[in-house]
Amino acid sequence: MTGDKLSDAIYDRNRFVERQLNMTLNVIKEDGAGNKLMQSAMSGSGDYDLGFDLIQSYGGGLLQKGLLRSYNTIRTIDLTEPWWDQAALETTTVKGQSFFGLLDFSFDMLESLTVLFYNGELITEYQLDDPYELFLEDEWTIDRMIGMMEVASLDVNNDGKYNIKTDNFGLAGREYWFQPMIFTSGLELVSWNDQDGEFVMHLGEERFITVAEAIGSIYVKGNPLVDYSDYDAGRIAFKEGRVLFYSRLLGDYNNLRTNEDDYGVIGFPRYDYTVGEARYFVQNPDALFLPVVVSDDNGDGKGDYDEIGYFLQAVGSYSRDVTKEVYVENAVIGKGMRDQNSAEAVRYMMAHLGYDLNQYYGLTSILQGYGDSVMANANYASKAKALEKQFNKLTGKIVEAIEKAVEKQAEYMG
Ligand SMILES: [Ca+2]
Ligand SMILES: [Ca+2]
Questions:
Q1: Cα 297 to ligand 2 centre (Å)
Q2: Which CATH superfamily is domain 112-282+359-391 in?
Q3: Cα 238 to ligand 1 centroid, rounded to whole Å
């Protein structure tokens, strides 16, 4: 027992599940989990039953090498149970297969949620609208945020230049591939079309370009209201009360606890309220990965997939009922975010998570192309055209890899 409520709750959970299932959880912490899992699966040694690492370290590599098994094939798992993240399943399931284990287990998808911290003292000082009130009134838009950023930006030392180390900014922090406001605006850069059996890139579509241009008007190179060139300096500037909005992951509240200013947490704003439901972007979370070869500890001559399934169902169910609430109350509400409104905003975001297929399937060049257009705030349609061939080639390979995986998995299904 460590005295930390969340650690204790996770410890209790693991012991409970071990007793219930008469099993022992052997957790090995080492760097490069993806590589270890790959070696284990390729050699057939089955040293690991599950891997846990960033999704970007698996989707492009292990999946395409045919070394991952989808959770849909495990007889003892019911993916419709609520502890499996239904938004993640809906977004990342391709050809009926889901390879990404995002369930109530570690809460890393909550830690990796992109949010805006805001400085409450600056809101008061400049007599700005409270972002939470705007959010409640369905008026929390990109335009409103830009208006507030304009008020809060100031060339403090009056040298005609904006420097994150000396001046005041509307927004600092990380840009997360310029994705958060795509998601809050009800859009996504890439999706899977199950009917046509293909991935679709939305970069060149009219509504997407309209929203991307609004995002680009914030992040375009040279905009004095914003600095995302130096994350450390941005954090310091926010702590020093020189930044109105600070863009980070929810888990970063740990770094802000010494902040003497009053601060709140809000989701990114959306383009407008006419189309689509807002979702809140989860940046490259850790997930559980199931290799194509696992151990046979009970010696029945078959890989222990059924047993792994029992484990995931038990750990997911217990986490959802007990551990998740400890996480929310202890970590999110208890210390970092004093304001009850922030806690409410966070709860809303947690119920509307958004996941990006580019990160799951290794389509980094597509993200890069979109990012380049945002930084220039131009050429969206021509960039989409230029990327089309590459996109079709890359995604064609993914579809092939998944089809191969389905064939291999049939052995287990019998
Ligand atoms: Ca200056
Ligand atoms: Ca077995």
A1: 6
A2: Periplasmic binding protein-like II (3.40.190.10)
A3: 16
Per-domain boundaries in the chain: 5-110+284-353+403-413, 112-282+359-391
- Residue appearing with tokens 């420097």: 163
Q: Are 84 and 103 in contact (CB under 8 A)?
A: yes
What is the Å distance from ligand 2's center to 301 Cα? 6
Using DSSP bridges, classify how beta strands 226-227 and 169-173 pair: parallel, antiparallel or unpaired.
Answer: parallel
SS3 state of residue 170: strand
CA distances from 152 to 145, 225, 241, 245, 273 (A): 11, 8, 11, 9, 25
The class of domain 5-110+284-353+403-413 in CATH terms is alpha beta
Q: Which ligand is nearest to the CA of 162?
A: 1
First and final C-alpha spacing in the chain: 44
Question: Is pTM beyond 0.85 here?
Answer: yes
* β-bridge mates for residue 141, sequence order: 270
Q: Do domains 5-110+284-353+403-413 and 112-282+359-391 have the same CATH topology?
A: yes
C-alpha distances out from residue 85 to 89, 98, 103, 329, 382, Å: 6, 11, 5, 20, 36
How far, in Å, from the CA of 79 to the mean position of ligand 2?
Answer: 22
pLDDT > 90? residue 340: no
Report pLDDT digits (tens) over 233-284: 999 999 999 999 999 999 887 666 554 558 889 999 999 998 888 999 999 9
